[in-house]
Amino acid sequence: NLPFLENSLCPPFPNSPSTIIECLKYISTGDFPPGTKGHSFVHDPKVANETDVRAQIRLQFRDVTGELIAVQRSMVCTQKGKKTEFKTLEGIITRTKHGEKVSLSSKCAEIDREMISALGVSKSVINNVIFCHQEESNWPLSEGRALKQKFDEIFSATRYIKALETLRQVRQKQSLRVKECQTELKYLKQNKEKAREIQDHLSNREAQLAASKENVKSIENQLDPLKNRLAEIEQNLAKVVRLDNEIKALDSRKRQMEKDNQDLQQKMEKVFQGTDDQLRDMYQNHQRTVKEKERRLTGCQRELDRASKECQRFNREKSELLVEQGRLQLQADRHQQDIRTRDSLIQTLAAMLELDGFERTPFNERQINSFHKLVKERQEREVETASQLMREFAEKETMKQKQIDEIRDKKTGLEKTIDLKSDIQNKKQVELKNVKYELNQLEESSDRILELDQELIKAERELDEAEKNSNVEALVLEVQKLQNEKANLDKVLQKLDQEMEQLNLHTKTITQMDMFNKDKVDKEEQIRKIKSRHSDELNSLLGYFPNKKQLEDWIHAKTREINQTRDKLAQLNKELASAEQNKNHISIELRKKEEQLSNYEDKLFDVCGSQDFDSDLYKLQDEIEKTSKQRAMLAGATAVYSQFITQLTDENQSCCPVCQRVFQTESELQDVISDLQSKLRLAPDKLKSTESELKKREKKRDEMMGILRFLLHTFKRNHIIPNDDNLRNKLQNVNRDIQRLKSDVEEQETLLGTVMPEEESAKACLQDITLMERYQTDLRDVERKIAQQANKLQGVDLDRTLMKVSQEKQEKKHLWDTVTGKIELNQKLKQDQQTQIQQLKSTVNELKAEKLQISSNMQRQQQLEDQTVELSTGVQSLEREIKEAKDQLFPLEATLEKLQRERVDLINKKNTSNKVTQEKINEIKEKVKNIHDYVKEIEKYIQGGKEDYKKQKESELDEVKTQLADCEKQKEKISKEMGTIRQDIDTQKIQERWLEDNLTLRKRNEDLKEVEEERKQHLKEMGEMKVPQLKNERQRLEEKIEDLKRNHSLALGRQRGFEEEIIRFKKELRESQFKDAEEKYREMMIVMRTTELVNRDLDMYYKALDKAIMTFHSMKMEEINKIIRDLWRSTYRGQDIEYIEIRSDADENVSASDKRRSYNYRVVMIKGDTALDMRGRCSAGQKVLASLIIRLALAETFCLNCGILALDEPTTNLDRENIESLAHALVEIIKSRSQQHNFQLLVITHDEDFVELLGRSEYVEKFYRIKKNIDQCSEIVKCSVSSLGSYAH
């Protein structure tokens, strides 16, 4: 329940009590009042002189479960420039559960939905029934479309009607889907049968392909062992050739090794005659001696590096010590400068402060301490003097400020007195002006009273004349007579409607017969078009125009002919593929032999570098001989150079060992010895490079000899050299067969290209032929229906036609319209006369009220005159007091200004004196601080021991210089020793070379023995192999393999033909019409059957839901109309309308295939058996009363869970008699619903008589009055019904 409000609100002023309903509606549904979007719902910020205005609505009620709920909605209206912006703030719902308050914010939930759920009624019922605004209260008599929309929302029928429409549309779509499935199933069945036929052909070809693969596999199984055996023989023969090449290579290597040994012996000075162990021991001892000298040389190098590092370290220390010595010297110089500067500053400050005993420098420590003590005493005296001066100035400034404050207080008191009395004077002047204006108005009102008396007499005379001239009762009798005449005409029209309905039944039969005849003509035209479209084509193909079965048989025969042609074409393609395979095989064999020859020539070119093998081999032999001679010369040169050096050094000869030339000087002799020693050192390296080059050329020669023998043997074995005419003849025969097969294939393809278009053309005609037969069947059905309709029309009397009856009905309808117009005209005249009398009565009452108001105002004239005199006297007295205060204020301002100038001068003197004293003190402090800084630096240098540290670094520098000189001497000594060791190592290299040559000679002799053993082993292996038998077996295997390969190629050709046919069949099966044809047919059949079942279910659901909606609608409408009828009869006091009711018209003949059901609502007024639409035919009072009663009936019907109803200005446009009956009806409603715990009636009205009528019952004792307080804000006051008489206008 809403917070309990008494049953009426009666404001004396237009304070907009409708705002209560607007607030209730907004907090319940979130909808703003009509004609506003929120801006005018909140107080205007411009009027309130604020930037923004905040508003809040709070409501407490109990929901459908009895639970206590508090709702709060807030909003703000902000002024932005010329526009106002409205914003809804956060809303809160608070529930009390188990004694605790639980809040839910609009940020977490939708407040509108929560409120509708809590109140237990829909939003449309709240807006249109419970909290309906006065501007929208007459919606039951609005135009048809708006009325239908509101009733649909109240009945909540829209969603069910949409559900019906959805069911109807779905069923229509499903019906179309069934027809599409039936058409598609026919073609899917044909595709399924064709796919099955192709699948049978595919299975047959796959079986043939499997047999062909087995044949190919058996041939390959026969080929594998033969190829393995042939490979084994080829491997053995290759091994024989390899052994032969290795034997020849070993012979050549043996000869070359023997020659190399002879050359090495000739080169050596002498051959070592001892054993191998003695030679190795001698070589190892020599190696140890050389390594010892090299190790000594390495040690000397390390000592030299170590001495160099020591020198570098001493140089680095020397540099660091020199840098440190320079830094210490700089610090000592700075120390002396600081002492001189300190003494100079002391002299300067002593002279400034006039201190004696500080004229001569340098100063000792006692003098410096005495100076600091004197300066400190002088500083303290200066500070004390400055403080005393500042205290004197402060005392003077305080006295001046006290005088200024006293004068200022007096001045301020006078100014406040002047302002206060000026404000009082202004207010009295404004009040005097208002009183004078009111007196002027009262003087003019005396003339207005005379005018009102004349207007009142005239208005009363016009009212009497209007009441005399009124003929309302005669008009009522005439309206009743016309209504009886209208009822008779309604009966005649009803009979004519029945007669037209019977005629319509026969008309329907005739119309159906015409439709069938038209359908028959259409079918015949369709059949003629199909025959004319395909007649020439089918006659050219078959020789006559066939029916469906004949055309299908002809197409089947053509399909069989095409398949036979395809089979023959596939056989020719297989033979052609086999021939192509054979041709490829022969071409590959011929190409392979030619490629072998080319490969052998390439190998020869790779080894020789050219195609001229003989010249390259001869050139290589010549280069080998030259390189051998060069190696022998280099080997002998080592011994010769060693002997020459020995002779020149040991025998003390000064002549050349070759030309016997005598050397004139020792230097020439040393130059020759050095030249010989350098050549001797280079000889071993040149000898190694020459031997390496010789080995490479010998290896190349052996390869050329081996490849030459291998090529000659291979040419003889493979018969590559003679031309293979047999293969070329075979290739020509195969080419002739291929040409013949290609011509046969072209012939069959031409035949196939002729037959297939005929088949396709016939298939294209088959669909139209099928359609034509269906048209013929439909034509027979139409002819049968025409005969049935003709039988129905036999014996029917058609003299009275539908047109005659319709014409008679139009005449009666015109007469009915004339009578209705007369009734409406008389009712309008009656309403106009009543309205005129009511307006005249209102005018008389208004004139009487205005006269009474002016009379009461005239009594206040003497009181206003006395008030004018009193106000004038007060204004003059205030002017005198203000003038006296201003005269006292002027001298005070002059005195205050003088004292302020004296105070400013005093402050300036104080600041100047203080500044001079502070500058002098700060200067002394700064100089003392500088002296202290220099003293600290001097003490820091002395306490740091910098002078002793400087002497220590100078002694360290002298010591480092001595160590550096010793290190340089050691380096020079080590360098000399390293030169001697290097010369000894060079001399030992010659002896090492002689020992290495002896070792090489003995190793070559051992290698020569190994080569002879390997050659004997290869000769033994060649003798064990049977080379002639292997060659004969190889030739026999090659011939057998050739025959099997030929058969293999033929089998592969047949297999390829089968594979191509299988690919073609699979490609056809992958086409869209054959791929998954059977599955598509089955799925489409399932879809069609299930869709038909679904359609039947949808039709059942549609009818059930429609019946339920109609039952619910009829029950509710019957209940509403019963309540409306009772309320109207108990409320309306007129005799022209017995009762009113709501009528809803709907089409009864509906099914799932028709359009959705539509209700057309209208409010009718009934008198006797006549019902008229109230819209446009009723008075304003009848309109208000009808709307109010309909809302009360809807509330009774739909508000079981929410027994709240608010009535806004229910007595508008009602006459006194109907107002009394309405009050009586409301009291009866309150009485009948008084026991209902959630019933609450809220009435807002300006009619005090209506409130008094409600108050006469025992159920209404209090009411709430809305009025404005002193601040012009509305407030609600609870009043008793018995106090209504005290509120007179």
Automatic annotation (TrEMBL):
| Cofactor annotation | Zn(2+)
Report which reactions are catalysed by this protein: ATP + H2O = ADP + phosphate + H(+)
Which positions does UniProt annotate for Zn(2+) binding? Answer: C656, C659
Domain (Zinc-hook): residue spans on this chain: 610-709
Highest rank taxon of the organism: Eukaryota
- Subcellular location, in the record's words? Chromosome, Telomere; Nucleus
- The coiled-coil regions, if any, are 178-324, 425-506, 555-603, 724-792, 830-1054
InterPro entries named among the record's database cross-references: P-loop_NTPase (IPR027417), Rad50/SbcC_AAA (IPR038729), Rad50_eukaryotes (IPR004584), Zn_hook_RAD50 (IPR013134)
Q: Does the keyword Endoplasmic reticulum apply?
A: no
Family per record: Belongs to the SMC family. RAD50 subfamily.
For this protein, the record's NCBIfam families field holds:
rad50
Please report the name of this protein according to its UniProt entry. Zinc-hook domain-containing protein
